[in-house]
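Note to self: the last two entries modelled the partners one at a time, which told us nothing about the interface. This time every component goes in together.
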Amino acid sequence: MTNKTILLVEDNPDDVELARRALRKNNIKNEVVVATNGMQALDYLFGTGSYEGRDTSLLPVVTLLDLKLPKLDGLEVLKRIRADSRTKLLPVVVLTSSKEEQDLVNSYSLGANSYIRKPVDFSQFTEAVRQLGLYWLVLNEVPLEYGGH
Amino acid sequence: MKTVGLARKFSIGIALLVVCTLGAVTVLTIINGQSSLRRQVSFHNLSEATLVSRAIEQYVVDATWIMREAGTRPKLAFEIDHANWVEARKVLVNIQDHFKQFDYLFIQDPKGFITARVPHAETVGQDFSFRDFFQQAIKTRQPFVSGVYVSKATKRSVISIAVPVTESGTVRGVLVGALSLNKLSEFISRIGRHDGSVLYVVDEKGFLIAHSEGRGTTPPENLSKNQTVQAVLAGKTGTMEFADPAQDDNLLDAYVPIKQLGWGVVAEQPISIAFAPVTKLVRWIFWLAVIFTIVAVILAWTLSRFLTAPLSRLTEATKRIASGDYTARVSLQSRDEMGTLANSFNEMAEQLEITQTRLKQEIHERVLAQETTHRLNMELELRVSERTAQLEATNKELEAFSYSVSHDLRAPLRGIYGFSEALAEDYADKLDEQGKDYLKRVCAASERMGQLIDELLQLSRVTRSELRHEAVDLTALAKDVATELQECKPERRVEFKIAEGLATHGDPRLLHVMLQNLLGNAWKFTGQVPQAKIEFGADPPNGKPSYYIRDNGAGFDMAYANKLFHAFQRLHETSEFEGTGIGLATVQRIVHRHGGQIWAKGTVGEGATFFFTINGNGGSL
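The predicted structure of the combined assembly is written out below.
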């Protein structure tokens, strides 16, 4: 289980650190790969750019995707993930501080598995991430092809 | 064209009138003239026939009397008795000398042999005992007038008068005088009128004795088949009209019998001749009618042209007006109805022209006004679309701004809060009480900052979001909000009094936000009242009500009532009642977007009442 990574797509280092801390606090030991923009996230997933040569069969167990990103925004990243056959079933949880309903609707219509608002109240955020850990990391209810080849 | 038509009609009418009148007069004249002529002709013919019959009777009676006188003369009897024929012949010559109506005279002996004859003696010695007049004279010893017959000696038609010559009661001979029928014909032809009418005499057997035209007496023509002849020989007097097949004409006959002789007289006239005066008159009337008609038509034509000339001018002017030439006028110096009509027409045309000019001007003005309006509308539309575009751009900017605010303002805040929390959790043992207090304040401040951002976003969303229109149950909404509030702070005792059946039309999401704010305010400001009361109702309950939310909380000073609905305006210290000062601004926007009004009344320490109305149709931005 520990060799399974969590891909965190987040440009704000504070939020990265807080997310790392929340995961750590909840005893989630998975390696957290951080992509600070959308392009980097896609490079990681498809083994391109700076991740050239990466074994793309090793997909992250979950992707935490911020919507507001430089270069390529979160919704566009989500769209490309869903458009590729290798990643179309990858669990994606949209993380955002936005309260815009439109973001929620767009995320779900593009195939987000869950939607978690980054709360200012960090305890709620931690709770949300812990729930994610319970569902996706601890219980590991990911479809078999993720585990397999 | 029309005026000519009128004149033609008038002329034809007059001609018809004249022709009809004259026709009627002619027919009446013919009928009347014919019947009167028939009467007149019949009467005339009858009197003529009567005259002739009397004359012939007299002629024959006179001749008979002469013969009787001669027959009774003793000298004649003596000479016959003594067969002294030379002397006897002298007597006969004497008679013929005196009475020219006798063609010839002769004496027969009692056996019928002719013994003497004047003027010629060719038949003397011949036996003429077969003659009826001889036999009748011998037999009756009375004078006898024979019918017509052809004389053997002269080969002419004659009638003879025979008288017996007696001496001492014995018949010594018969004296016979043959009457000249030529003379009779001459006589009646003198009476006749030579106008196509004829007179004729027939004997008792129907043989023609005399004819005014000298027709068919030698040998005598037999007319016994003739119906007039049959009537007159039956002793009748009268008139009759019958068709004459030979002449293709009707004949008008009058007949009178000569009773003493058994003969008849007929006066006959062809109808065509009898009615000639009428025919002539009819011809006259016909030509008169022709002349009258021509004259009448010419007169009528001229008169109607004269009468319709003003009419045709009026018609011409009317046509011009109808075709749009309103300057058309009729000049007619006449004091009759035509003149009045022309004057009225001219007045009417004048009015029309004025009205037309005004109308044209008005139309022109209207067109101008319409053009102006159209141009203004176009400009307005352009401006509206410009403004709309501006507004849309502004809205987009605002949206982008809000989005940035919600993300970008929140991010550092999350950092502040998150790391303060981490500090408090992970390093609490390394901080003294003062440090812990500071950290707590940092957390509270950032939490309040987050709340402010949320409410600001809500305010802008209330302004921007599209307004829905549907039935909203305000009572149910208010009850939901009250329940939420109670659940947040179960320890508080607040009496909610929410009126039943409050319903309106509007956006349920926005109205929910509005009630959340108003009831939330009431809840908040009654926080320090032991027996808090919050009331939601409507006044009047039906129709177009004003809704109100009343509480018995802290209230407010009416002097600041106008500041209530401005964003970030607060009437209370934050330490007293927490809040951002955005809630009522949001409420006001929601009410305004629903086409309503909001206002408040309050007294410090006694509570506040918020009134609002909602226009069912909803307003817009």
